[in-house]
Design a protein that fits this description.
10 helices, mainly alpha, globular
Length: 156
Amino acid sequence: GHLDALLRGLVLGKLGKAGHKATLEEARRRFKDHVEGKQILSADLRSPVYVTVLKHGDSCTLDTMLKLHKQADMQEEKNRIERVLGAISQPELIQKVLTFALSEEVRPQDTVSVIGGVAGGSKQGRKAAWKFLRDNWEELYNRYQGGFLISRLIKV
């Protein structure tokens, strides 16, 4: 049922982020099959699988996710990817995600979700997002001009 599917995604996401070996291995296998077009991930498993492989991934994993983002033809999939990019844990890759947030690949209204994902991904991500916000304050403020997105950005 619908509630079981939601619970399954939540549990798998938590197990994957925590590094549960069997969950991590299965997520990597399913992600590889998804990327190669062998077996497309169901929508309810994409976020937990994406989070798991990113949390324990490297620059190749991030590049693959950014490629999936670019190739996505539905905005819903782009948004799903944007929300989970903050799970990446290496400092230089966190910076790459933050830079991506301000790129033309991300709609201005979705930049906040990318930065929020980084801020919520880890303590290190939160510090990096705060520094990024301060360093890019003028551009972000001008982009959102005192609207609700600037207040949301500050909250995250």
